[in-house]
Amino acid sequence: MSTPARRATGPRPGAAGDTHVRRFFRVLNRSRGTLIGDAVRLAGSSAERRRGLLGVDRLSEGEGLWISPCEGIHTFGMRFALDLVFLSRDSVAVKTVSALQPWRISFCWRAASVLELPPGTIARCCLATGDLVEITPSAAQSH
Question: Has this prediction a pTM greater than 0.85?
Answer without folding.
Answer: no
